[in-house]
Design a protein that fits this description.
The strands form 5 sheets. A 5-stranded parallel sheet has the order 6-7-8-11-12, with helices on one face. A 3-stranded parallel sheet has the order 1-3-5, with helices on one face. Helix 1 crosses helix 5 (about 85-100), helix 8 runs parallel beside helix 10 (about 225-235) and helix 16 (about 375-385) packs antiparallel against helix 17. The chain has one domain (about 35-415): TIM Barrel. It is α/β, with parallel strands linked by helices and about 425 residues long. About 35% of the residues lie in helices and about 10% in strands. It is globular, with a radius of gyration of 20 Å. The protein has 18 helices and 14 strands. The structure holds zinc ion.
């Protein structure tokens, strides 16, 4: 609700004169600081964040490609996203593109340039000496984003909220292999789903990304079985959203994001990464029947994590868990669940860490999860480099004596497991 009000307000702000809008830079809008000042790059909190972390093993497992299709990328968005008659979606899209510091007239291209700048800068902070360009370093795993499909396997562009073609994600990754890996997105109901998967993997895709409610996928459907068998055979992880979805609206299949529905993929031997550890929203407890009670989605994720059958192939990513719309109790649970830590993977959900109103470090400090003295430093870093902000914030999080371990940030190992 807070977000809906906020975004409705944002829509009004986007049509205000520039002078007024500029007053709000740094409060609502990202002012897009271009170069991280030295007092931040060399700040003790930044130095401490890299302690024990090998940048070469740091792959940000959750980064979105966005744009409007003005650079021949093939990206498209639902007309709703560009219409003032749909103020919430319009403002959300504006916020996302603002967060990514895109330039009018060359949105797609400037989005990629900004990501390259941010990841290069992140790497620069990894070494007090400025880093060695020849050394393997931190990368972003860029997500393609599949269209919606119907049950018969036909693409539904009119119901597709947002689409980033695999070919575009591949092209961007190939153009800058030192900065990017890529993650394909393939609908399992497509007639050519298995062939498309094999082709993407042959071209270096490291995983598959799904957002079931938006794409129109029921992960518990037998329609997915052939795709699951192929994922298991090829040893390709499936990064799947679970829990409530706030960022993109689409087919409106809300039940599709129920974490329990991932059992079908897990039982087929697929390595499944539940995005955000299902840290927001509620789902039906399907173990009590189709009309079971609604419970927090993260409880259902916790049930799967505790299942002895899934110890080897169920994982969670920690993208977006530090956002304002996650409860403190949820964040605390993730920090406290040491038994999960060996199966958690870091990701930023870029560009969201650049959307200033979605984060409140002060609230985390008040709850005792962050040192008060870190708040102004983190807030200033966020204005220049949202990737560094997300990383330093997660490295600073603590509850009592507990912290997120370094291993959560060494995500490359997970994607290269079993590969030569
Ligand atoms: Zn995401």
């Amino acid at each position: 609700m807070f977000l809906k009000k906020l975004f409705a307000g944002g829509a009004a702000l986007t049509v205000m004169p520039n002078a007024s809008a500029s007053l709000l830079d740094g409060i609502l809008f990202n002012p897009c600081g271009t170069a991280l000042p030295q007092h931040l790059a060399g700040h003790p909190l930044v130095i401490a964040a890299w302690e024990g972390i090998d940048p070469g093993r740091f792959w940000d497992t959750h980064a979105h490609i966005a744009g409007i299709g003005d650079g021949g990328s093939g990206i498209f968005t639902t007309p709703d996203m560009n219409s003032l008659w749909h103020p919430i979606q319009y403002a959300q899209h504006k916020f996302y593109l603002n967060a990514a510091c895109t330039e009018k007239g060359r949105v797609d291209q400037s989005y990629i340039e900004r990501m390259k700048h941010l990841i290069a800068e992140l790497n620069h902070t990894a070494s007090a000496k400025g880093g060695d360009a020849k050394q393997p370093h931190a990368k972003l795993m860029l997500f393609a984003f599949e269209q919606a499909y119907d049950e018969a396997g036909n693409a539904q562009p009119a119901h597709t909220a947002f689409h980033v073609p695999n070919a575009y994600a591949l092209k961007i990754a190939q153009s800058s292999p030192e900065n990017f890996e890529w993650v394909c997105s393939i609908h399992p109901y497509r007639h050519d789903a298995v062939e498309a998967l094999e082709a993407a993997v042959a071209q270096g895709a490291r995983a598959v990304k799904w957002l079931p409610s938006v794409m129109g996928i029921d992960p518990a459907s037998p329609r997915c079985d052939a795709f699951y068998r192929s994922l298991a055979r090829l040893n390709v992880p499936l990064i799947c959203h679970a829990g409530e979805e706030k960022a993109v609206e689409g087919m409106g299949f809300h039940d599709a994001n129920n974490p329990l529905k991932m059992r079908r993929a897990l039982d087929a031997g697929v390595r499944v990464v539940v995005a955000h550890c299902a840290s927001i929203g509620e789902d039906i407890d399907l173990d009590k029947g189709k009309h079971g009670p609604h419970v927090p989605s993260i409880e259902l994720f916790a049930r799967l994590m505790a299942d002895a059958n899934y110890q080897k192939n169920l994982f969670g990513d920690i993208s977006a868990i530090v956002m304002r719309n996650r409860s403190i109790a949820t964040l605390r649970a993730i920090i406290e669940h040491q038994d999960w830590h060996g199966r958690l993977l870091n990701g930023s959900d870029y560009p969201l860490p650049g959307v200033l109103p979605l984060y409140t470090t002060a609230k985390l400090a008040k709850a005792g999860l962050l040192d008060q003295s870190a708040v102004p430093v983190l807030d200033e870093i966020q204005l220049y480099n949202p990737l560094l902000f997300d990383f330093v914030l997660k490295r600073q999080l603590r509850y009592g004596m507990q912290k997120l371990p370094q291993s959560i940030f060494h995500t490359r190992d997970f994607f290269l497991r079993g590969k030569t």
